[in-house]
Design goal:
The structure is a single chain. By secondary structure, the chain is of the alpha/beta class. It is 28% helix and 23% strand. The protein has helices spanning 19-27, 53-61, 74-81, 99-102, 125-131, 167-191, and strands spanning 8-13, 31-36, 41-43, 48-50, 65-66, 87-91, 109-113, 121-122, 136-143, 152-160, 206-207. The strands form 3 sheets. A 7-stranded mixed β-sheet has the order 5-2-1-6-7-9-10. Strands 3-4 form a two-stranded antiparallel sheet. Helix 1 packs parallel to helix 6. The longest helix is centred in the C-terminal third of the chain and has 25 residues, at 167-191. It is globular and about 60 Å long.
Length: 220
């Protein structure tokens, strides 16, 4: 890979499909100063506390981990700002980032969203695209703002949805593609070669979390 600026980053994510992005950033030589992830949660029959996949990866990589329950607290915001970051990379973190957090890194917060924005803003873009019968999905990397996936788009890449694809399979493929796209975007954001593009004002749709009702089969 061509040489590019090495940045001081925070990584903010929780599920397994965020891990490839984290590893790609670290392998490329960026300094991951801290990882923010969801706090451990009870799981299984014994309700033992279980760390998120990103938390487990962070510990294996020897990177400091923060697990606040909220980032709306002023003390947490000051702690985040004190890391003196060039940028934060966000992949399905699970907490709302208030303006004080969004504005703290020099280059702001860059989010990978697995849809072709403005279609399927929200929590479950891949399953909703599949349930709607979409022919394609994709990856958008956006400059986060205070809205729900409304930030300017820095990079995008489409991907067809195959007839045999499942949501987990598709997420895994998108995560691998997203990791490569994020590396290019971070470099372009740092050297000013990427121009943000505002999302269209029309055509937005919202990907609500799946519910038990979504899993019911109409046998008729």
């Amino acid at each position: 890979m061509p040489d590019f600026p090495k940045l001081r980053l925070a990584f903010m994510g929780s599920p397994a499909f965020a891990v490839p992005v984290l590893r790609a950033l670290a392998d490329a030589g960026h300094q991951i100063a801290v990882i923010y992830t969801q706090p451990p949660k009870p799981a299984g029959r014994g309700h033992a506390l279980q760390k998120s996949p990103v938390h487990a990866a962070a510990e294996a990589m020897g990177i400091a981990v923060e697990t606040p329950k909220t980032l709306r607290d002023e003390a947490e915001q000051k702690k985040f700002a004190a890391y003196n970051l060039d940028a934060a990379v966000v992949v399905a973190y699970g907490l709302i980032l208030p303006p004080a957090v969004l504005d703290a890194p020099k280059l702001g917060c860059l989010n990978i969203h697995f849809s072709l924005l403005p279609r399927w803003r929200g929590a479950a873009p891949v399953p909703r695209a599949m349930l709607a019968g979409d022919a394609e999905t994709g990856i958008c990397i956006m400059q986060m703002d205070a809205g729900l996936d409304t930030g300017d788009v820095l990079a995008r890449e489409a991907m067809p949805i195959g007839p045999a694809d499942t949501a987990p399979d598709l997420l895994a493929k998108l995560a691998e593609r997203g990791a490569a796209l994020m590396l290019k975007t971070v470099a372009g954001r740092a050297d000013g070669s990427i121009a943000p593009v505002k999302q269209p004002g029309e055509g937005a749709s919202y990907a609500a979390k799946l519910t038990r009702e979504d899993g019911r089969v109409d046998w008729n």
